[in-house]
Amino acid sequence: MKFGIIGLGAHGITHANVLTRLGQTVIGVDANSEARAEFSETFDAKTYKNTASLYEQDVAGIIIATPNKFHEATATEALDAGFPTLIEKPLAHDLPSAERIVEAANQTDCPCLVSFSNKFQTACSVAKSYVESGYFGKITHIRARHVRRRGIPGRGTWYTSKDIAGGGALLDIGANLVNVLLYLTGWPAITEVVGNARSEFGKQDNYAYLDMYDDNGQAKMYDVEDSVTAFSKFGDGMTASIEVAWAANAQPEHTYVIQGTDAGAELRLSNDLSEKSESPLTNELSLLETRPDDIDHHVDAAVTVPDSDPLEREMRHFITAATDEEHPTLNSAQQGLRVQRAIDTIYTASR
After folding, report:
1. What tens digit of pLDDT does each residue of 48-74 get?
2. Cys-Cys with 303: which of 66, 192, 214, 285 at CB 3.0–4.6 Å?
3. How many CB atoms lie within 10 A of CB 223?
4. How far is CA 138 from CA 145, 188, 285, in A?
């Protein structure tokens, strides 16, 4: 089958790599002639300057990998043309734009998904099964933390422009963090938030780093946050502490500590799922209990989960939705909108 990719930067290349590994064919669209030439050479693929030419092709689905500000225009166009669509996270650069995308998905009745890859790590899937079985009892608190030591993507490029990206660390890596948190706990609504957003590293003239996801634009555009810390309360009484940081003087960490009335857990996921990452995949789950048997005792259990590429699992999920024209139960645009609303609430409380 053939899939069209709109936006041939780093995200578009990643999606193309995954699709071709799964035996699919790709077509690319980008206004940048150099990006089109590189994509064409790498994947032996046709490329186009505009989407109109793409929609004339026989494609099974469309993947949107443009900068955030352009998600709405490209996604609604693809949906109106009748194509199942996968949108790189976040759903949009702001809440009103996200709402309009979901409205288009509802009106066209086309499958529309958002790429939240961390949810497809097997340890996350197993943790969700324990939640659904009632193993933890009532979940009372989660500590969700995604911190990079130095990991500002494309410092000074569109990634760090509020106008184009819509936000910084919270809307980037925080979108995955909030998505997993809400997914694990049954999609509760935030009722109260206390938070703080900071921008302390990216604007530094002497910003030091070992690697960068995209080009270093030397902070020419940098009006977003490096980090956000927030304490949230939900309608069901659960609370969560949320911390995201592109850069911090701390060890990298991507964890979810689940505290329930009957048991707890720690879920440890990869800090970076991009294909540029040289770090091994972190995909770990441990369970914690205290049992009142003949002798009261603690139980700490490491759960062994199978290795699986989350990017490939996610793409198979999209391929199935596109070919069967089924509305997804995971990573739907409607779930993406819930994530966007939660992030908007945290931003409002953190400014």
Report:
1. 999 999 999 999 999 999 999 999 999
2. 285
3. 14
4. 21, 13, 19
Domains 2-115+314-327 and 118-308 fall in the same CATH topology = no
Specify whether the CB–CB gap between 198 and 226 falls below 8 A: yes
List C-alpha distances in Å: 257 to 127, 143, 158, 191. 11, 5, 33, 21
Cα–Cα distance, 123 to 95 (Å, whole number): 30
Task: Say if residues 63 and 6 touch (Cβ distance below 8 Å).
Answer: yes
Whole-number Å distance between alpha carbons of 339 and 24: 30
* CA–CA gap between residue 84 and residue 60 (Å, rounded): 7
Closest C-alpha to 175, from 30, 7, 11: 11
Fold of the 118-308 domain: Dihydrodipicolinate Reductase; domain 2 (3.30.360)
Cβ-Cβ contacts under 8 Å for 69 (sequence gap 6 or more): 93, 158, 163, 164, 165, 166
Report the CATH fold assignment for 2-115+314-327. Answer: Rossmann fold (3.40.50)
Taking only the tens place, the pLDDT of each residue in 153-185 is 988 899 999 999 999 999 999 999 999 999 999
CA geometry: angle at 181 spanning 180 and 182, to 5°? 95
- H or E stretch covering 103: helix 95-108
Could you tell me the pTM of the whole model?
A: 0.94
Q: How far apart are CA 74 and CA 85, in angstroms?
A: 10
